[in-house]
Design goal:
- The structure is a single chain.
- The chain is mainly β.
- It contains two helices and twelve strands.
- The strands form three sheets. Strands 3-12-11-7-8 form a five-stranded mixed beta sheet, with no helix packed on it. It has a four-stranded antiparallel beta sheet with strand order 4-5-6-10, with no helix packed on it. Strands 1-2-9 form a three-stranded antiparallel beta sheet, with no helix packed on it.
Length: 228
């Protein structure tokens, strides 16, 4: 049986630079207010379209598979989302050149998770975080980092505004595995009691860019004097 990830204690991480660029990642503590305000209630009244087959809690999926889930960003709003974790790529802290990194982030391993989201329901949930988490080797839930400005490798942004019925959004989310850790899965887990839906698969590693080499210049050949 696959072990289920525990929820980590709250942890805030910030990167900043003189230009005002910043990247922040905040963990969620078990049973905290932050979790409760973004969790669907056990007696959800969200209307599920008749054509949609909901994904069972506890499902083990592969990268590229889709899951249909109820998403309630607050007590007054809810819809059905189709979530697809397309690909996961291991990054490097070198990708954050130009940022001033704290010790926590310097020691972390970044991962870039490509996700596709489709709104199958009727409510507008624009501006809400994409509801998937990273799971590291210690079974800790890792929240997606957020940026104050564009990060070219992976935007790591919330759902667009508006994000209404039939809206589709393709994005990339950044997760920081602490202490040089590894990302083992990507998870949908709206509340601690929910048996998480998890995606796993082969994590891509970018091919290092070869360092250009300069060929040594050929020495000019001296012409030998002709004999008379």
């Amino acid at each position: 049986m696959r072990s289920r990830p525990a929820v980590s204690l709250t942890r805030a991480v910030a990167l900043s630079a003189a230009t005002g660029l910043a990247l922040a990642s905040c963990g969620v503590g078990g049973g905290t207010t932050d979790e409760a305000t973004t969790s669907p209630s056990p007696t959800s009244t969200v209307s599920v379209p008749a054509s949609v087959s909901m994904t069972e809690p506890g499902s083990d999926l592969s990268f590229g598979d889709s899951a249909s889930v109820i998403f309630e960003p607050d007590q007054d709003t809810g819809t059905v989302l189709e979530l697809t974790v397309e690909k996961v790529t291991k990054g490097s802290t070198k990708d954050f050149s130009g940022f001033i990194l704290d010790d926590y982030t310097k020691a972390a391993t970044p991962y870039y998770v490509e996700v596709s989201v489709t709104n199958l329901g009727a409510s507008d949930v624009g501006g809400s975080p994409v509801p998937v988490w990273g799971v590291d080797a210690d079974n800790t839930l890792l929240p997606a980092a957020s940026f104050k400005t564009k990060f070219g490798k992976c935007e790591s942004e919330p759902l667009p505004t508006p994000f209404e019925a039939d809206g589709t959004y393709d994005t990339c989310l950044v997760y920081l595995a602490p202490n040089g850790g590894t990302l083992e899965a990507v998870s949908f887990r709206p509340v601690q009691e929910f048996d998480p839906i998890a995606w796993t698969g082969e994590i891509a590693t970018p091919t290092p860019t070869p360092t250009p080499t300069t060929k040594p210049s050929k020495k000019p050949t001296r012409k030998q004097p002709r004999r008379r």
